[in-house]
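Amino acids appear as letters; backbone shape is given numerically. Here is one record.
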Amino acid sequence: EVMAAIREAVEGKTCIFIAHRLSTISECSQVVVMEDGKIEECGTKEELIGAGGGFSQLWQEYCAEFEA
């Protein structure tokens, strides 16, 4: 599994992921949401979901795909 290999490779290291897929960043300790080259939101996944901003909306849509 790709994510298992990534987890093993980055253990104990600081890494920056640039991703469009939420599954890729779901285990990251910090998430930075950018739009038009500017930081829109920054925090843990849980903080951003609770904030009700753009990330929260994307996360809800992402989760709804699995519930359908």
Remarks:
- The chain has a mean pLDDT of 91.
- Residues 32 and 38 are 10 Å apart (CA to CA).
- Residues 16-67 form one domain.
